[in-house]
Design brief:
L-leucine transmembrane transporter activity; Amino acid/polyamine transporter I; mainly alpha; amino-acid transport; 73% helix; transport; Branched-chain amino acid transport system carrier protein
Length: 433
């Protein structure tokens, strides 16, 4: 294997591992349970909304040299700063990074050592994260060469055992009606497109450090690495969905998703299964924590023009995340989920529009679409929190979580007819902040 292909595989493995957090471990088996014999249909929907959106985000970020601000920039400098910062704070120290430690403790450590101190564990977890993240040039190699193979082996043992010796007969009657739609809904809820936008920064930085400085070459290699990651995710998600389908006559729609994967692992592998699951969860969460910590530090270092040093941000993120992780998974999700729900649709919209940026000459089309996505998202979150806004649930595709699509199309069309004072391609996004 020549150097370029080897680098693509290493970077692709790293991207796979940074995408595959503990949340991605628990969604597919539950989808298999409720889909039963139609698990492939549900899996197809999940794949489209999770891996599909993530690949689009990787492509958009690669076109923008891995800079989050450039992906968001044509919707306006102020929105790029606010939305980009919100993405990185949520994916960083407010939600995703603390959740990696909390999930590892709850799913991996507690079942093996119930008396282990959670504060001590969080300190150890983020000490390791700090050590493996402090040198940005080493992040991708550490994950891609060492941590991902171990994660794949552990996942492979679990999935292959479940295929060779299925736990039961698959339920011929699915528990839900719109199976493909439910798969789309669950894949969308992973919000991996946000992670893809952020993590592409780490990938681009790694490629530059490996000597790939030509812009078109970096885009091409990033996309190839994204395809490697996508293939890995397809295989793992498919295997986990099938495992869920094999216990679809044992569990119902009310099964706790975290307990489901624990029970499946224990049934397949016995007591050693607890160790294997702890290894899977630990590696999945650690690789995600490393990638997001590095991405967060690189983002804030860039938008402050280096006034905030990468090393200082990494240190601050690890300390803050260690503190927040002790609040527990449910508390972290409850606090941060509404913010993610507000910023995710606008990010998806700008990712897709960025891919066709050369065809969209008027920046006001970006602004109209993005601000409409934000408006619908804010109203949806307000409705979910108890402030009754009935019309928001009656919009097309609301049941899938896509009630923003039609308003966004209207906002984009209206914006395209408003004259823009800036010329497409002339905005200096690097000067954001």
């Amino acid at each position: 294997m020549n150097k370029t292909n080897k680098d693509i595989v290493i970077v692709g493995f790293a991207l796979f591992a940074m995408f595959f957090g503990a949340g991605n471990l628990i969604f597919p088996p539950f989808l298999g349970v409720i889909s039963g014999e139609s698990w492939l249909t549900g899996f197809g929907g999940f794949l489209l909304a999770d891996v599909g959106l993530a690949l689009l985000a990787v492509a958009a970020a690669a076109k923008c040299n891995g800079e989050v601000s450039k992906v968001l920039g044509r919707a306006g400098k102020n929105l790029a700063i606010v939305l980009g910062s919100a993405i990185m704070i949520c994916l960083g120290p407010l939600l995703a990074i603390p959740r990696t430690a909390a999930t590892t403790f709850e799913m991996g450590i507690s079942p093996l050592a119930s008396g282990f101190n959670p504060i001590l564990f969080s300190v150890l977890f983020f000490a390791i994260t700090f050590i493996l993240t402090i040198k940005p040039s080493k992040v991708v190699d550490i994950i891609g060469q060492f941590l991902t193979p171990a994660l794949l082996v552990a996942l492979g043992v679990l999935i292959i055992k479940g295929i060779v010796t299925p736990l039961g007969d698959i339920n011929p009657t699915p528990m839900i009606n719109d199976i493909f739609a439910e798969g789309v809904k669950q894949g969308y809820q992973t919000m991996d497109a946000l992670g893809a936008v952020a993590l592409s920064t780490v990938i681009i930085t790694s490629l530059a450090n490996k000597g790939y400085n030509d812009e078109s070459q970096k885009v091409k290699l990033t996309m190839k690495a994204g395809i490697v990651a996508a293939i890995g995710l397809c295989l793992v998600y498919g295997g986990l969905t099938y495992l869920g389908a094999t216990v679809s006559q044992v569990y119902g729609k009310d099964v706790v998703q975290t307990k489901l994967i624990v029970e499946i692992t224990a049934s397949l592998l016995g007591h050693p299964g607890k160790i294997i699951l702890a290894l899977i969860v630990g590696l999945a969460c650690l690789t995600t924590a490393i990638g997001l910590t590095s991405a967060t530090a690189q983002f804030f270092s860039k938008i402050t023009n280096g006034k905030l040093k990468y090393e200082i941000i990494v240190t601050a993120v690890c300390i803050f995340s260690a503190i927040v992780s002790n609040f527990g998974v449910s508390t972290i999700i409850k606090f941060s989920a509404p913010i993610l729900d507000m910023i995710y649709p606008a990010t998806v919209v700008l990712v897709i529009m960025t891919l066709f940026g050369s065809k969209i000459k008027n920046d006001n089309a970006f602004k109209g679409a993005a601000y409409m996505a934000l408006l619908v998202s804010v109203l949806t979150v307000a409705n979910n929190l108890g402030i009754s806004i009935p019309m928001i649930t009656k919009l097309p595709f609301a049941q899938l979580g896509f009630n923003w699509i039609v308003p966004v199309l209207i906002g984009g069309v209206v914006g395209s007819f408003i004259p823009s004072h800036s010329k497409q391609g002339k905005i200096d996004i690097n000067r954001v902040g």
